[in-house]
Amino acid sequence: MNIELRCCLVLASLLLANLVASKHGTCQESIDSAAAMGAMHRAIDFFRTEASTHGGYVFRVSADLRLREGEVNVGDSTAWIEPPATPAVGQAYLDAYILTGDSVPLAAAKETAKALLQGQLVSGGWSESIEFEPETRKRIAYRVDSLDVGKRRNLTTFDDDKTQSAIRFLMRLDAAIEQQDTAVHEAVMYALDGVLRSQYSNGAWPQRYSGEADYMQVPQRSASYPKDWTREFPNKKYTTYYTLNDSTLVDLIATLIEAADVYSDAKYLDAARRGGDFLLLAQMPQPQPGWAQQYDDQMHPAWARKFEPPAISGGESQSVMRMLLTLYRRTSDRRYLESVKTALAYYRTCVRADGKLARFYELETNRPLYFTKQYELTYADTDTPTHYGFIVDSALDQISRELDELAKRSGEDLWKPLLLKRPKPSSKLENAAAVVAAALDSRGAWVEPGNMKTHQASNVTQVIDSKTFIKNLRTLANYVASTR
């Protein structure tokens, strides 16, 4: 058999195998480490030069790069903070560097850090966005511009993991480069000091913080039920309430635990433990030993937004229980386990017929509470607004398993600092890397079908999403790391 015929037969057999594999859903894509690294470089180069502003990012941009949005639509001189925007993208770059040792993602991570430093407030943290337009910046108390606040806006927000995610990224970068960038290190220290200053004396934090410390001394009270509460939205300011909503307090504790590990400084762990002790204070008494989204200065569950009533939370309470288990791992304090045990028994009684939990349970009656699309309280879930999760998944089984496992253990072996592990080689990971590499367009962008919530009139049908970029970059970095 001559070589041409043999090659033809081999090619035919490979094509036939691919067709059979494709028919049965088992077709395997392939890519080598160099090609994956090349795809990673192309993606980073496009994203940092075309999808960013001054090194900062937003939730998504239109495929033609004309429109940008975070929670609101923004222009070319605004970056957003809440994940999956600026700190989350920076963290993806940093993870890619740690996994691969490659200088390209490290340079991008440093660029993102520089953007965050431009947005740090005198109060210590970050607001919703960073403004780079010079005239707009004059109205905001950015630390790099001047420490004289005057009439400038200076409100740090802990809502939606904004300030916390920025601190964690900068802190991890600071550790990765061994504190060689003085500006980054000073920004982290300044931000962590702000977190410590803004902690109430009972261990809680407000949702937002202006830098003033005179109101942080508060009574040490346990949570209790109010004699009565209004069913009508009172439209009161709630940003100084003790806030668990959107995992605000849990994210702060997690950030402080990590700071204690990174900088070997006990003051951060002490503050984290005070936060954990507040969670014990905030656990409601029987018959509903769970947690509310926020508490007023009397330690009563309180209204926040018009769709967040005083109630026992089926959502935030699950993240609270997980944090209490984390605190036990870090401290071996069994009070945290007992709190979770009591809460779990209660939440088992709250599970809906579909296996999920309501976001809200009425105080003392324990009836699930919902809202109509007209924002009226109701006991029915048939007409709820779509922008908010009034029904949440249950993680009670997972929490229960972790509780049972931890109850049998104690000691320092429970805690291991956060480390990024190099993945093992696998055909599944190779296939995933090949797929995302092939999905890059000629510019190096991952374009996908989608619209822009804040640009409805523009009829956008294709977007470039930061969440997808983060996911795909990590896939490529993991694959490259697995080959080394």
Structural class: alpha+beta
Quote the beta fraction. Answer: 5-15%
Amino- and carboxy-terminal Cα gap: 40 Å
Shape: globular
Biggest pleated sheet: 5 strands, antiparallel
Pick out the low-confidence regions: 1-26
Please report the number of helical segments.
14
The strand count comes to 17
**Strand neighbour order, sheet with most strands:** 3-2-1-17-16
- Whole-number average pLDDT? 93
Helix content: 40-55%
Q: Radius of gyration over alpha carbons?
A: 25 Å
Q: Keywords for this structure?
A:
about 475 residues, alpha+beta, 5-stranded antiparallel β-sheet, 4-stranded antiparallel β-sheet, 14 helices, 17 strands, globular, disordered N terminus
